[in-house]
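Chapter summary example.
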Amino acid sequence: MALSDRIALLRNGALEQIASPREIYSRPATAYTAEFIGQTNLLRGEINNGVARCGVLQWKTPEASGPALFSLRPEAIHLAGSEDDATGVVRFRGTIRQQIYSGASELLEIDCGEIKACAPELLQGVHSPAYTNLFSPLEMPCA
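The structure predicted for these 143 residues follows.
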């Protein structure tokens, strides 16, 4: 992706998406594209009257009502502090099931009931098993 200004992604000879690397990564057109270009958490849900629901998670969205699939990149999930009461973010509690060491950071596998998610953390030692996380729905395109 570093050498490209446009990418054409094919799947079984059919075109999935043509866009800049940044657009493909941040706004994938399909679930295949989201998973092909980097790690993602695919969340299946339903949109009703401007509210998206994926298991225990819910947030406002301008998308049309109906079934939906969202791509939530691990780097969009952050450990929430007590001062993180910003509007427009989604807070959820989860239990860390696994910590995967990868040098300067680690990948956390988080279980929050019906949804399993992965989130990166800067290497700061072992985390307590249960904590609150947050993400911004603006960072979560519908695939």
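To summarize the output: The chain has two domains: 1-38, 39-139.
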